[in-house]
Amino acid sequence: MKYTTSKQSTQEYKWEKYHSLNIFTGKRMSRFVAVEVDVAIGRKIQQRRKELGLTAENLAEQIGVSQQQFSRYERGATKINVAHLVNIAVILDTPISWFFADSKADNLTFSSQETYVPLRNDALKSRLDYHWAKLSNEQRRNLINFLDVMNK
């Protein structure tokens, strides 16, 4: 019996298990497919890579994987190897905890204690747009009021 990922909504994936047959032993094996956390980490990698103006091909080469494998990491189609994630964090000059910010897994919420500040203005704008989209109207008003006070 084989189960595949079922998409609940545009951004939410179920954690599912599927069975496959080991061709050497003939025994059934259980494997887990990509989950919401993998998709979120992939999006963060892609976001930061683009902020720094790096191509996917260039970053894939630097961490020693094919461009196809790197693409699967960014889409969340494959669980990322921890060593690769560490290398990506170093290359992108980003705390590794940032990749887990706002991710949820089994009722655990990861939040980044360390934050990075993008170096380029377009990267700063990208981060502002990212957070702005998540704010309620009241939070947006409060932020604008705060900025007005800061600029006086």
From TrEMBL:
Lineage: Bacteria, Pseudomonadati, Pseudomonadota, Gammaproteobacteria, Pasteurellales
InterPro entries, per the entry: Cro/C1-type_HTH, Lambda_DNA-bd_dom_sf, TransReg_Diox_bact_type
SUPFAM superfamilies attached to this UniProt entry: lambda repressor-like DNA-binding domains
Protein's UniProt keywords contain rRNA-binding: no
Source organism (scientific name): Canicola haemoglobinophilus
Protein name: XRE family transcriptional regulator
Molecular-function GO term, any one: DNA binding
Domain annotation HTH cro/C1-type: ranges: 45-99
Alphabetical list of Gene3D superfamilies matching this protein: lambda repressor-like DNA-binding domains
Pfam families found in the cross-reference section: HTH_3 (PF01381)
Keyword check for DNA repair: no
Transmembrane segments: none
Annotated GO CC locations: cytosol
Keywords: DNA-binding
